[in-house]
Amino acid sequence: MPPLHAQAAFDLPQLMRLLAEVRSGEATFTAQRHSSLLDRPVESSGRLSFQAPDRFVRETLKPRSESIAVDGNTIVMRQGSRSRTLQLDSVPEAAVIVEAVRGTLTGNREAIERHFEAQVSGAPAKWTLLLAPRAPRLRELVTQIAVTGERAALREITISMTGGDYSVMKIKE
């Protein structure tokens, strides 16, 4: 029988409560996209920001300026002087990735559980959240999203696609 002072394993509700305490944030990122069609990874870097409950911006500065801004169900994509606005729910493939990042950043347990089967390991000081899309159509594209973090800070997001392609984004405050 375990001692009375033994602590329960760190789980999704605890992680989401920890993340929900942070209402906004900014960070820099570096990313590598690995594709079987390319000889070497495509590298990019830029800035991330979010504001709870549902605003998220990824601004890529290198190799070229582009941004994706999500506010509620509206997504605005900019590349140079071109801009495109659409509703996030009209692009389910993008929605699943946006919800993985935005839902994790804001500690939105409902969004995470609606879109993913979630598994948490580690402890508050260093944790991993594995997300597998629930929708069969999305599982044909994305096999898993792995998010690692320390306390309420995300440190790395790895998106694994079917067929072996993947991207890794490292996040620094």
Q: Count the E strands.
A: 11
The description of the largest β-sheet is: 11 strands, antiparallel
Query: Strand arrangement, largest sheet?
Result: 6-5-4-3-2-1-11-10-9-8-7
**Number of helices, where a helix is a run of at least 4 consecutive DSSP H or I residues:** 4
Radius of gyration: 17 Å
Global outline: globular
Oligomer kind: single chain
Give the rounded overall mean pLDDT: 92
**Helicity range:** 10-25%
Q: What structural category do the secondary elements indicate?
A: alpha+beta
Low-confidence stretches: none
Distance separating the two termini = 42 Å
Order of helices and strands: HEEEEEEHHEEHEEE
Strand content: over 45%
Notes on the protein architecture:
This protein is α+β, with helices and mostly antiparallel strands. The protein has helices spanning 12-20, 92-106, 109-115, 136-139, and strands at residues 24-34, 42-51, 55-62, 66-71, 74-79, 82-87, 116-123, 126-133, 142-150, 153-161, 166-172. Strands 6-5-4-3-2-1-11-10-9-8-7 form an 11-stranded antiparallel beta sheet. A hairpin with a 7-residue loop joins strand 1 and strand 2 (42-51).
Fold blueprint:
Blueprint: H1 12-20, E1 24-34, E2 42-51, E3 55-62, E4 66-71, E5 74-79, E6 82-87, H2 92-106, H3 109-115, E7 116-123, E8 126-133, H4 136-139, E9 142-150, E10 153-161, E11 166-172
Antiparallel strand pairs: 1-2, 1-11, 2-3, 3-4, 4-5, 5-6, 7-8, 8-9, 9-10, 10-11
Summarize the structure.
The chain is α+β, with helices and mostly antiparallel strands.
